[in-house]
Amino acid sequence: MRAVAETPVTLTLLTGESFTVDGHGYLADPEAWTESFADYVAREEGIELSPRHWALIRWIREQEADHGVMPDARFAMKYLGGARGKQAGREELFALFPYGYVKQAIRIAGMRQPRAWSTG
């Protein structure tokens, strides 16, 4: 059981865009995601999005669109590490999103909160 209620909340940005999020701030509908939403959540997390952040965010969204599920953290590490290897990808992932892949990267990418998760 989760500590925060699953009651949907409407979040309205200064841009005038409105989003429905759950009690943890994850989008209820990933199709509603915009870059403005990502910028807002990143600022709330204390993250300034760099080109490398955006590359991972777009990759997460593409993987979910192509496969119907969010990519696990170990695949994100492999993506980030490339020829440098999974360990380099792990280090970069936690440098980009220090409080975790699910809490930060997945939320910023506009995915739903996963029920169960492997951190790789």
TrEMBL record:
Matching InterPro entries: DsrC-like_C, DsrC-like_dom_sf, DsrC-like_N, DsrC/TusE
Entry-linked SUPFAM superfamilies: DsrC, the gamma subunit of dissimilatory sulfite reductase
Family: Belongs to the DsrC/TusE family.
Keyword Cytoplasm: yes
Pfam families found in the cross-reference section: DsrC (PF04358)
Organism ancestry: Bacteria, Pseudomonadati, Pseudomonadota, Alphaproteobacteria, Rhodobacterales
Name assigned to this protein: Sulfurtransferase TusE
Organism: Sinisalibacter aestuarii
Keyword match Cell membrane: no
Lineage: superkingdom: Bacteria
Location in the cell: Cytoplasm
Keywords: Cytoplasm
